[in-house]
């Protein structure tokens, strides 16, 4: 099939490359000419595992093309995906301006029947608005249909998530469009991936409901972790024992500094706004948003509790990205935590395996940028792990202790157990295991 994907951001690019890999002929369109120039050379403008080889191979096979203008690609295409940004407005709602602009622009290239697929996360009801905008801008009497096909890609494993999804959801009121879409996803249907055909509003709601539920799971386990700290329980055992109940499931029960990223914070706020606008109170979602903010604030209090007054103290921060395997800092808990530590007068040394360039854009000269965990720890009163990068799971504590001003590890991702860290004479704090920071620790001078 000939397919166009408008918007070569995160979602658009993964969609274009994976559809080309299914065997379709795909044109990726983006008005950012520097991005298109990179893509034409086979270089991905974003850091995403497995994406670059997929772009290269399918470009070489002449199944994947990139261009800056909508013509040709869209003219020829049977299916056009819209995958442009829907940033948050001040009231939390998703801004559909870019989606509607693209809809108006592409309308003039619709000369024969086409299926327009919305992949961007949009307010419930937006697909119908896309249909109206296209209809208003058509230059000829041609038939077209609009489909909502929400994406469930996770950064860092987006290619795999596209190729082996838990489900595909196709929302449209048109049986003709459903048929076309089942050809687009034939490769997945053949593999037996659950394939859900429904109406537009249901598909749009699935996206928000899924993300809000996952955010709720995280906020819930974080609250349980906070309780564990006070009552003397261990959150890791609580989470695992809960998760082994199949109705609950083991995933997304890792307590930490709060969720971040470009999706959960934005989508929970947008869903809460939809609830308010519809007169349907979504009290759980509203509370999850507040609880997540409070979790970040609690992490700052935790650090202050371990280090004392921060004025003039040096702290080492390991991990800035909102999660591992990405350079994405959007809504990362690290941003809020660092802002608060800086405001309290701390000197912050940072290291992240991928996100240093992004961090420099935001924090400029207010931070000390380091080259590895050991360089970060130099002269630090405490080392704080914020992101659960694989590289931070096997730190050399003997080496760390030698360079730190005082051996304190604040592990906001529970990468270690207290025993593992304390045997090296470290004072250890974490999320959801009671009072380890206050335990009697071996005398550092005696243990060498
Ligand atoms: C999320 C969803 O997982 C995807 O299914 C969805 O398609 C995507 O949003 C989207 O709407 O585009 P993503 O934002 O890439 O994906 O990241 P996740 O892996 O879901 O992590 C989100 C945040 O939750 C991270 O800050 C992570 O550290 C945190 N988290 C996750 C926890 O604190 N604990 C956990 O147990 C799991």
Describe this structure in words.
- The chain is α/β, with parallel strands linked by helices and 448 residues long.
- The chain contains 18 helices and 14 strands.
- The strands form three sheets. A six-stranded parallel β-sheet has the order 3-2-1-4-5-6, with helices on both faces. Strands 11-10-9-12-13-14 form a six-stranded parallel β-sheet. A two-stranded parallel sheet has the order 7-8.
- Helix 10 (200-231) crosses helix 12 (264-278) and helix 13 crosses helix 14.
- Uridine-5'-diphosphate-glucuronic acid (UGA) binds at residues 151-155, 211, 214, 218, 252-254, 256, 259-261, 263-264, 267, 322-323.
List the helices and strands and how they pair.
Layout: E1 2-6, H1 10-21, E2 25-29, H2 33-40, H3 51-60, E3 64-67, H4 73-76, E4 79-82, H5 97-107, E5 114-118, H6 126-137, E6 144-148, H7 158-163, E7 168-171, H8 175-184, H9 186-190, E8 195-198, H10 200-231, H11 235-243, H12 264-278, H13 283-307, E9 314-318, H14 333-343, E10 347-351, H15 356-363, E11 368-369, H16 373-377, E12 382-385, H17 397-403, E13 408-411, H18 418-422, E14 427-429
Parallel strand pairs: 1-2, 1-4, 2-3, 4-5, 5-6, 7-8, 9-10, 9-12, 10-11, 12-13, 13-14
């Amino acid at each position: 099939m000939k397919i166009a994907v408008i918007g070569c951001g995160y979602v658009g690019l993964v969609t274009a490359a994976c559809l080309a890999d299914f065997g379709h002929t795909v044109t990726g369109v983006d008005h950012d000419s520097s991005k298109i120039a990179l893509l034409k050379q086979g270089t991905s403008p974003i850091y995403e595992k497995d994406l670059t080889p997929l772009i290269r191979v399918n470009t070489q096979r002449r199944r994947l093309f990139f261009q800056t203008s909508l013509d040709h690609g869209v003219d020829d295409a049977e299916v056009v995906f819209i995958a442009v940004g829907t940033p948050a407005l001040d009231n939390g709602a998703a801004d559909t301006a870019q989606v509607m602009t693209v809809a108006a622009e592409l309308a003039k290239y619709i000369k024969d029947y086409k299926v327009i697929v919305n992949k961007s996360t949009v307010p419930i009801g937006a697909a119908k608005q896309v249909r109206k905008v296209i209809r208003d801008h058509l230059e000829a009497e041609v038939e077209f249909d609009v489909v909502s096909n929400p994406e469930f890609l996770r950064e860092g494993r987006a290619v795999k998530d596209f190729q082996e999804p838990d489900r595909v959801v196709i929302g449209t009121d048109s049986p003709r469009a459903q048929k076309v879409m089942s050809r687009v996803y034939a490769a997945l249907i053949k593999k037996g991936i659950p394939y859900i055909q429904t109406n537009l509003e249901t598909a749009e709601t699935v996206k928000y409901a899924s993300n809000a539920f996952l955010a709720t799971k995280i906020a819930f386990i974080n609250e349980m972790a906070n309780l564990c700290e006070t009552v003397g329980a261990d959150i890791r055992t609580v989470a695992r024992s809960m998760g082994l109940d199949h109705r609950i499931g083991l995933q997304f029960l890792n307590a930490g500094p709060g969720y971040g990223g470009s999706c959960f914070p934005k989508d929970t706020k947008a869903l809460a706004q939809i609830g308010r606008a519809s007169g349907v109170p979504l009290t759980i979602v509203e509370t999850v948003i507040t609880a997540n903010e409070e979790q970040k604030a609690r992490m700052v209090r935790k650090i202050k509790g371990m280090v004392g007054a921060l004025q003039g103290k040096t702290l080492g921060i390991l991990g800035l990205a909102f999660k591992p395997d990405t350079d994405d800092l959007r809504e990362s808990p690290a941003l809020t935590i660092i802002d608060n530590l800086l405001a309290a007068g701390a000197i912050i040394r940072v290291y992240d395996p991928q996100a240093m360039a992004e961090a420099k854009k935001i924090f400029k000269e207010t931070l000390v940028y380091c080259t590895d965990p050991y360089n970060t720890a130099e002269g630090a009163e405490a080392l704080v792990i914020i992101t659960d990068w694989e590289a931070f799971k096997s730190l050399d504590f003997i080496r760390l202790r030698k360079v730190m001003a005082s051996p304190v590890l604040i592990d906001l991702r529970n990468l270690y157990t207290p025993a593992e860290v304390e045997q090296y004479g470290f004072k250890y704090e974490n999320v959801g295991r009671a009072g380890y920071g206050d335990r009697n620790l071996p005398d550092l001078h005696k243990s060498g």
